[in-house]
Design brief:
Length: about 500
C-alpha cells in the first residue's frame, strides 16, 4: 500500500500513535481542571491505560505485511513494531514504578511527569517507523524537546536546572549536526526518502565520495550524542544526575534505544553496500568507524565508571559502555555468514531495558531511605531488605554479563556475531571491558552485604515499585534460562528483506 495522501482508513494503521496523542491531550485537560487536593496519581494510572491501548494496537499488527504511508515516509513493519513494543513496555514500567514513589516536594506537578512521557515515547515510535528524513527529524525532535522539559522538572533543584540547560544546548548542537548531514544527503540525491537515497548513492558513489563520508560523520556525531556513546557522552553523567529518577531511567533505556534503532535503519538503508570494496570501500570504511566508536564507548564508559561513587553517574557511564555493546551488531554488518544481527541487537536491548529499569527501581527506594544518591546508600541493604538486595544482585550480575542472566547471553550472542564477521579485536574488547565492569558493579554488592548502615532509614517499597522490581528480576532470569526463545520469536517475525529494506516508490 503506497500513496501520496493520507486517507481516513489509514488512521487505523496509526492507531498506536493516535492513542498516545489522544491520551496526552485528555490528561493535560484533566490536569488543568482537577482540584489541587486530588492526587495526581490517577493521571499516572490513566497514562498506563493509554500505553496499554497502544501496545494492543501494535500487537494486533505484529506479523502483518508492511504498510507504507505517504509515499514510504511512514512505515508500519515488524522492525518498527518490535521496537515500539519495547519502548511502550519500558515507558509503562517506568511510569508504573513511579506511582506513589515520586516526591511532590521534588517534582511539584507530578501530572506533568506522566503525560509528558507520552509525546516522548511517541517521538521514539515515529523515529523507528520513519522511511523519510523529514519524518525522522520530526520524531527525533519530538523526543528531544520533551526530554529537555522532563530533565528540568525538579524545579527547586539547581542541579536539575543546570542539567536541563546543558542538555538543551548540547542536544541542539547534535540535532543541528544531524540536520546538516541530512542536507548533504538531499543535495546528493534530490530525495528525502531512504529507499531512493540508498539507490542513488549506490549508483553515483564515485561522484559523491567525499560528501558521503561527510554526511555519515555528521549524522553519526548527532546520533552518537543521542546514544551517549564516547566521545559524544560528556552530557550524560550531569544530565542523569540532575534529572528525576524516572526521567533518568527513560533516558537510559527508551531514548538510547530509539537512537540505536534509528542508526540501524539509516546505516543499512543509506550506506550499506555503497562503493566498490576493491577500489572505493566506502561501506567498509563506515562499518569500521562504527566498530571503532563501539570500542571507544566500551573502553571509556567502563574505565571512567571505576571512579564513580554517585549511583546515577555510575549508571550513566555504565550506559555509555552498554551503548558500545549495542553498536557492535550494527558494526558487524549483514552477510551470508551473519544474518541475525537484528535479533542479537534486539535481545540485548530487551535485557538492557529490564536490568536498567529494575536497577533504577531499587535505587528509587534506596535513595528515598538514605536521603542521597551516593553508593553508600546501599550500605547494609541485605540486613534491612534482604530480598530487595537479592533482586539488585541479579540486576548487577546481568549488567556485568554473568551467566544465567539475560545480560550474559545478550553479550554472548553479540560477541559470536562479531566473531562470525572476523571482528576478533572487537570481541576481545567486549570481554576485557566486561571484566573491568565487574569491579564497579561489585562495589555495590560489597556495600549491600559487607557494610553496615545504622543511621539509614528502613526501606519503604510501594506496591508498584515492588511489582516492577520482581517482574524485571523474573524476566531477566527467564532470558538467562531460555535464551533461544526470544531469538527464535524475533527471527520468526522479522525479515531483513521485508521489514528493513524499503522498496517501491
Amino acid at each position: 500500500m503506497d500513496q501520496l495522501r493520507l486517507q481516513a482508513s489509514d488512521l487505523l494503521y496509526l492507531a498506536p500513535e493516535l492513542s498516545l496523542v489522544i491520551c496526552a491531550i485528555v490528561l493535560t485537560l484533566l490536569d488543568l481542571i482537577m482540584p489541587k487536593q486530588v492526587s495526581r496519581t490517577i493521571l499516572g494510572w490513566l497514562t498506563l491505560v493509554g500505553i496499554a491501548a497502544s501496545i494492543i494496537f501494535v500487537v494486533f499488527r505484529l506479523g502483518d505485511d508492511p504498510i507504507s504511508l505517504l509515499n514510504n515516509s511512514y512505515r508500519i513493519d515488524d522492525f518498527a513494531n518490535l521496537f515500539k513494543l519495547l519502548f511502550l513496555s519500558g515507558t509503562g514500567l517506568i511510569i508504573f514504578m513511579s506511582l506513589g514513589s515520586v516526591d511532590s516536594n521534588e517534582i511539584p506537578h507530578k501530572g506533568e511527569l506522566y503525560y509528558l512521557l507520552l509525546p516522548a515515547v511517541l517521538g521514539a515510535m515515529i523515529m523507528v517507523s520513519s522511511g523519510d528524513l523529514i519524518t525522522i527529524f520530526v520524531g527525533l525532535e519530538l523526543l528531544s524537546i520533551t526530554s529537555y522539559i522532563l530533565v528540568g522538572m525538579r524545579k527547586k533543584n539547581q542541579q536539575s536546572s543546570e542539567a536541563a540547560f546543558k542538555y538543551i544546548v548540547l542536544g541542539s548542537v547534535a540535532s543541528a549536526l544531524i540536520l546538516y548531514g541530512m542536507s548533504f544527503i538531499y543535495g546528493m540525491t534530490g530525495s528525502t526518502n531512504l529507499a531512493e537515497i540508498g539507490r542513488v548513492l549506490s549508483e553515483n558513489y564515485e561522484a559523491y565520495q567525499a560528501m558521503i563520508y561527510l554526511s555519515f560523520f555528521l549524522i553519526l556525531g548527532g546520533l552518537g550524542f543521542k546514544v551517549a556513546a564516547a566521545p559524544f557522552h560528556q552530557w550524560a553523567p550531569d544530565v542523569y544526575q540532575g534529572a528525576p529518577i524516572p526521567v533518568t531511567a527513560f533516558l537510559a533505556a527508551v531514548s538510547k534505544g530509539a537512537a540505536v534503532a534509528l542508526l540501524f535503519r539509516i546505516v543499512y538503508l543509506i550506506y550499506y553496500g555503497v562503493g566498490n570494496p576493491n577500489s572505493m570501500p566506502i561501506s567498509d570504511d563506515i562499518f569500521l568507524v562504527l566498530a571503532v566508536l563501539s570500542a571507544t564507548a566500551m573502553i571509556v564508559g567502563n574505565l571512567v565508571a571505576l571512579r564513580q561513587r554517585n549511583i546515577k553517574r555510575l549508571l550513566a557511564y555504565s550506559g555509555i559502555a552498554n551503548a558500545g555493546y549495542l553498536l557492535v551488531p550494527i558494526a558487524a554488518q549483514l552477510s551470508t555468514f551473519h544474518l541475525n544481527n537484528f535479533s542479537e541487537l534486539y535481545y540485548f536491548m530487551v535485557a538492557y531495558f529490564l536490568m536498567n529499569i529494575g536497577a533504577f527501581a531499587v535505587f528509587t527506594a534506596v535513595s528515598k531511605a538514605s536521603g542521597h544518591e551516593e553508593m553508600s546508600g546501599f550500605a547494609g541493604l541485605y540486613y534491612r531488605a534482604p530480598w530487595t538486595a537479592v533482586a539488585m544482585v541479579i540486576f548487577i550480575l546481568s549488567l556485568g554479563g554473568f551467566p544465567i542472566t539475560g545480560g550474559f547471553f545478550g553479550k554472548l550472542f553479540i560477541m559470536i556475531g562479531a566473531l562470525n564477521m572476523d571482528l576478533i579485536w572487537l570481541a576481545i574488547i567486549m570481554i576485557l571491558t566486561s571484566v573491568i565492569s565487574w569491579y564497579y558493579y561489585f562495589g555495590i554488592i560489597k556495600q549491600m552485604f559487607m557494610r553496615s548502615a545504622n543511621t539509614a532509614k528502613d526501606l519503604v517499597l510501594t506496591v508498584p515499585l515492588t511489582i516492577t522490581i520482581w517482574l524485571c528480576v523474573v524476566l531477566t532470569v527467564l532470558m538467562g534460562l531460555f535464551p533461544q526463545w526470544l531469538i527464535r520469536e524475533v527471527n520468526d517475525v522479522f525479515s531483513v528483506l521485508v521489514d528493513l529494506v524499503i522498496t517501491g516508490m
